[in-house]
Design the sequence.
């Protein structure tokens, strides 16, 4: 009750202050020679004059500015470090009098880290007097230093010192006759990396090894200091964020610390997955390459691992067979990847841990004679998404985005209840298909077929 009373008293006081202590004069007045836009009076005190900002002096309109026409009004230099490039700008005097033009490169404030240095540009001639109705050409030559980091740099060219008037001081003059400058430093990395990322499925308690090929295409030695990156993306479980299943101690990195010009090197990454680990690990392998042509994200190999623990038992499925007829069982699993491939079409630097299955069929008479009659390997291949990150000197290499393994089994069925039992190997997901009747219910597309009777089980590497 006291709290509500206090709030009411406070509101009455504020309203009383607004009504009784403040008033404004609607029409502007002047005190002396200074224009005043408002008179504010406070209770018990004299009126206070608040002037309007000084307006732009009469006569300073766009018609009084020098009339110059710039062609082009924007320049973009695409150069490599150490390269020189020249462009021309034409300035036409559309005024009725001669104009003195002096091009000057000026850095704009708050331009960020990618600001073109004034020393990169040379302008000839340094100045010119352009008669009314005439034109003059200025040659702009830019040279980027050898150690310039790749990126887009900006600056500005002014032709005169004329500026737009402003009612308030500005941190940087608002020049009238300007030309936008951009320098795109497009350098090719001197080091080639075989793959931009590694993605795989890992089983808890297992050991895995990966290799990354690197090549120095430069003229000087390159220092490498490969290590696991300090930061990793968070992993989420059923109850929110959780600790990642792998840390820096789970990895062992070895490889060259110095790569001579024109030489190849191999970096080896070994992963020791802890027992009972599960979940996702999203991190990176920082190669520690000292090359200004390679940005930070290109200096890293993304690591995406899905870790699981193999169940003790297998998957089971019960189904009924009503007639005496052949049974066909199809088990399939897909492996998704995006890895460069060699000239022969085989994936580069990826473990060949093909998925496999231990499958049994149990019917009214016990275990059936389950025979593997066909194994199909299907894949999807493109010509590469990023030639700069592929291994080799030519643009574009084959990249395989996924491989599917299909195993087809056959057995003789009879009426009764049947049970399918499957123990998957080297895969976290699979599909099954049970067909009844027919000689070949699931022909598929046998791009690569193993002879009949050969088993599809593989041992884990």
Sequence:
């Amino acid at each position: 009750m006291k709290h509500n009373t206090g709030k009411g008293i406070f509101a009455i006081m504020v309203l009383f202050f607004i009504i009784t202590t403040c008033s404004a004069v609607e029409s502007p007045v002047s005190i002396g020679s200074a224009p005043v836009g408002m008179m504010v009076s406070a209770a018990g005190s004299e009126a206070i004059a608040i002037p309007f900002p000084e307006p732009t002096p009469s006569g300073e309109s766009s018609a009084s500015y020098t009339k110059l026409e710039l062609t082009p009004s924007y320049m973009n230099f695409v150069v490599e470090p150490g390269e020189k490039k020249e462009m021309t700008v034409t300035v036409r005097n559309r005024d009725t009098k001669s104009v003195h033009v002096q091009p000057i490169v000026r850095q704009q404030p708050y331009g960020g880290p990618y600001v073109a240095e004034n020393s990169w540009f040379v302008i000839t001639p340094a100045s010119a007097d352009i008669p009314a109705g005439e034109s003059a050409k200025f040659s702009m030559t830019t040279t980027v230093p050898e150690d310039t980091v790749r990126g887009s740099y900006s600056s500005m060219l002014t032709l005169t010192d004329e500026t737009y008037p402003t009612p308030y001081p500005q941190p940087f003059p608002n020049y009238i006759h300007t030309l936008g400058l951009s320098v795109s430093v497009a350098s090719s990395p001197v080091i080639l990396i075989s793959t931009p990322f590694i993605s795989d499925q890992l089983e808890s308690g297992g050991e895995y090894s990966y290799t990354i090929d690197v090549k120095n295409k430069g003229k000087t030695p390159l220092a490498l200091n490969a290590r696991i990156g300090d930061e990793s993306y968070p992993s989420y479980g059923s109850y929110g964020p959780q600790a990642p299943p792998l840390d820096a101690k789970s990895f062992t990195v070895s490889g060259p610390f110095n790569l001579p010009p024109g030489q190849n090197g191999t970096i080896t990454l070994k992963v020791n997955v802890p027992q009972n680990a599960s979940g996702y690990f999203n991190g990176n392998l920082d190669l520690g390459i000292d090359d200004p042509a390679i940005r930070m994200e290109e200096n890293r190999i993304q690591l995406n691992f899905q870790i699981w623990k193999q169940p003790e038992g297998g998957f089971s499925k019960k189904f009924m067979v009503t007639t005496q007829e052949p049974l066909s069982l199809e088990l399939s699993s897909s492996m998704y990847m995006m890895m460069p491939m060699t000239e022969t079409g085989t994936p580069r630097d990826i473990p060949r841990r093909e998925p496999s299955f231990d499958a049994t069929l149990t019917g009214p008479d016990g275990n059936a004679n389950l025979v593997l009659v066909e194994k199909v390997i299907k894949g999807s291949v493109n010509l590469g998404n990023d030639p700069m990150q592929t291994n080799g000197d030519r643009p574009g290499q084959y990249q395989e985005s996924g491989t599917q393994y299909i195993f087809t089994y056959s057995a003789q069925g009879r009426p009764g209840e049947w049970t399918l039992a499957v123990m998957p190997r080297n895969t976290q997901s699979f599909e099954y298909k049970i067909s009844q009747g027919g000689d070949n219910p699931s022909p598929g597309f046998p791009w690569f077929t193993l002879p009949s009777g050969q088993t599809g089980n593989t041992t884990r590497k």
Remarks:
- Residues 315-436 form one domain.
- The helical segments are 2-21.
- The longest strand covers residues 326-340.
